[in-house]
């Protein structure tokens, strides 16, 4: 089973060639290669909650520290956490990959 990325589930249109690429810009999660394959996703597509500049309820979010509380309640975050179960990578580990 192919694991779906956040832009596929949320249909935000901010991926390259997406419907909102021009007006909202490309989402940083779609191009964050340091998190490629995290939770089986493309780039940060299944770890978007640690990437600044993603959308939530139509608004661009800031840093992890500012947005994580919103992300914890996100259906997509909960879905990834459930799907990955004991293989779920903690945010601190994902963030450390962004510092490299």
Account of the 3D structure:
This protein has helices at residues 6-10, 21-24, 28-31, 64-72, 75-84, 91-98, and strands at residues 55-56, 59-60. Helices cover 40% and strands 4% of the residues. It starts with 5 loop residues before the first helix and ends with a helix. A hairpin with a 2-residue loop joins strand 1 (55-56) and strand 2. The protein has one domain. The model has no long low-confidence stretch (mean pLDDT 94). It contains 6 helices and 2 strands, in the order H-H-H-E-E-H-H-H. The protein is mostly helical and 100 residues long. It has a two-stranded antiparallel ribbon with strand order 1-2.
Labels describing this entry:
single chain; 100 residues; mainly alpha; two-stranded antiparallel sheet; 6 helices
Briefly characterize the structure:
This protein is mostly helical and 100 residues long.
Which SSEs are present, and which pair or pack?
Layout: H1 6-10, H2 21-24, H3 28-31, E1 55-56, E2 59-60, H4 64-72, H5 75-84, H6 91-98
Antiparallel strand pairs: 1-2
Strand adjacency order, main sheet: 1-2
Strand tally is 2
Helix count from the secondary structure assignment: 6
Give the helix level as a range of percent: 40-55%
Kindly provide the radius of gyration, computed on alpha-carbon positions and rounded to a whole number of angstroms. Answer: 12 Å
Mean pLDDT: 94
Order of helices and strands: HHHEEHHH
What count of structural domains? 1
Shape label:
globular
> What share of the residues does DSSP label as strand, in percent?
under 5%
Quickly give the structural class: mainly alpha
Uncertain runs are: none
Major β-sheet annotation: 2 strands, antiparallel
In whole angstroms, the N-to-C terminal distance is 30 Å
